[in-house]
Amino acid sequence: MLNEISGRILTPSGWINGTIAFDQRIHAIGHDATANGALTILPGFIDLHVHGAAGTDIMEGGDAGAVVARAHARHGTTALLGTTLTAREPAIRRALSGLAGVIASRPAGGARMLGVHLEGPFLNIHRLGAQPPDVMVGSLAQVQALNAIAPIRVLTMAPEVPGHLELIPALRGMGIRVQIGHSAGTYDDGVAALDAGATGFTHLYNGMTGAGHHDPGMAAAALAHAEYAEIIPDLQHVQPGAIRAALRAIPRLYGVTDATSATGMPDGEYALGTQRVFKCQGCVRLATGSLAGSVLTMDQALRNFVGLGLDLADASNRLSRYPAEYLAEAERGRLQPGAWADIVVLDQDLRPVAVYVEGESIALTETASLNP
Description:
Blueprint: E1 3-11, E2 14-22, E3 26-31, E4 40-43, E5 45-50, E6 52-53, E7 56-57, H1 64-73, E8 77-83, H2 89-104, E9 112-119, H3 140-149, E10 152-157, H4 164-173, E11 177-180, H5 187-196, E12 200-201, H6 218-225, E13 228-231, H7 240-249, E14 252-255, E15 268-272, E16 275-280, E17 283-285, H8 298-307, H9 312-317, H10 321-326, E18 343-346, E19 352-357, E20 360-361
Parallel strand pairs: 1-4, 5-8, 8-9, 9-10, 10-11, 11-12, 13-14
Antiparallel strand pairs: 1-2, 2-3, 4-18, 6-7, 15-16, 16-17, 18-19, 19-20
Helix pairs in contact: 5-6
């Protein structure tokens, strides 16, 4: 027997008042004049940059990925990439070994882990932000060895580091999306990386040279040339005016959380890889005061985008459809027959009242479950 939910549904063709019938996949979407217009039904969110949640950091390895996948599912994230930090190779291997099992088999009550975002160690030591200083020059053999542990879908690198630009075509040949980030490179370095096959930018504006009109850097290259780029819409990493500029310039700008282990937790001290970070007043910082990831969730990202003036369909696309398209995940990010039943149901305040991952109803608290 199929499950059914009704409301105002965002389909690839636009909004309808209707009903979705589904089990693990969506079977039908039909018009229904009696549908409850107070409920909004969107594709589940897809977060391509997640370090942690619920007091747990991806770099811990073990079952950290499952804990993080469950925590973010309660906020409407139905698929995500487990994201590493710069570290020595044994620590990265441990993290990937922990993620491998979660990628192979989705944890009950959790989001689908689509693979790994390897954020480091192939970064510029002068633009580390909150990353530890264990950078190294990348090699194809090293990436192949890591990819054999768990599938790398996205890799962040600083293309101006000698040897990195030449590595991009080989990584593309492996099916890895190469993103420019944590870079001290120039505008020309960014253009060269895009010409070599890089496909995006990691947390636009943060961890890169800027968009100054006399000395344009990586951010200017993104604004001038990128089709895709990720941005952290917590309104702390990037101010609203700069987000609006990026929205006009980059056709498929999409939101990520860059969430840390402090997400969903009270103020206090937490881990970000080997770094100690501090949650206070809705943000996460190093002891120096520098921002260090976020406590953002994707449902809040949606509300923030809408608060900036985006219409709801546009905001949804930037948290579901565009990330899915970026990874060539044709069966996610859209509500249509045949797609996975990854669904978030929102009330009039755009807060989740039900979430489904591949048809499974997700408990929105740790002790209660919502059924269709």
